[in-house]
Amino acid sequence: MDYAGGFQEAVAGVADYERAGVEIVFVPEAYSFDAVSQLGFIAARTTTMQLASGILPIYSRTPALTAMTAAGLDYVSGGRFTLGIGTSGPQVIEGWHGVAYDAPIGRTRELIEICRKVWRRETLEYHGKHYTLPFPGGTGLGKPLHLINKPVRERIPIVIAALGPKNVALAAEIADGWQPIFYFPEKAPIAWHAPLAEGAANRPAELGELDVIAAAPLAIGDGEDITGLRDLMRPMFALYIGGMGARERNFYNDLAVRFGYEKEAKAIQDAYLAGRKDEAAALVPAEMLAKTSLIGPEGYVAERLAALRESGVTTLNVTPIAPTLPDRVRMLEKARALIG
Length: 340
Hints:
TIM Barrel; nine-stranded parallel sheet; globular
């Protein structure tokens, strides 16, 4: 779902997507409307579709509030919620939320441990490096508590959005799912094989297999009017690779470098930070646009789906590109047929 606008209109079509076989919908949260109220709205308009935050930043809510929110969404949806979390970046966390962007890996681990304690309705006492409950200072009146309500599930699935090696290893170790960005199946092992293996080596058996969630724009059809839709992604790639974060600290630029686009990543960043956004967009490699999308003739899309499956992807998060709701529904039905 798009966080930039038209949400009520978009939700009007979600029931049609559900009937077309879509199994999960992700609602993002940036410095936009919050994702939680919108997920509750979708829960009331659907019956079988899974609902996921994609993602809630770990810094903008306390761990206990994150756990309460997830349990509440799981309740109103009848056990259909997946908690997607991530660290976002310093621009949003420090600029919008006004809190320090520090210890992302340690805070993610501790937040997950606290959430799972809350969902088990354990008395909440926690002594970590980053979170201590009850709070040791203040009035001194803090009291260990447990969740009043009984959750629908004590093991709500948790997905970590992660790009860097340490964060990816953490996801493979303790999360139910992992959500990268700009997933390029043929180059994914270059960036992520080692950290995924590192995390998997310490993964508890009860977690089961890691759900690997890849996102891609979707448009199926012949002709340049379809393949040309890949260029619609250029501004977004340019924003992330060129302008998301500072020159010295841009996780998406680092990913492009790990994919083998070091020269292109630098040129995109130079142009974007100099204010030449159109030039930055034009510099995004055509191969990167093509191989991270599901845009093209039916045979091409089938090949890309096979590449995604072979690389280990287990959940596909698509954004259908079409002018009308019926067109988008037909496109999703085509994709479902190709997946089999």
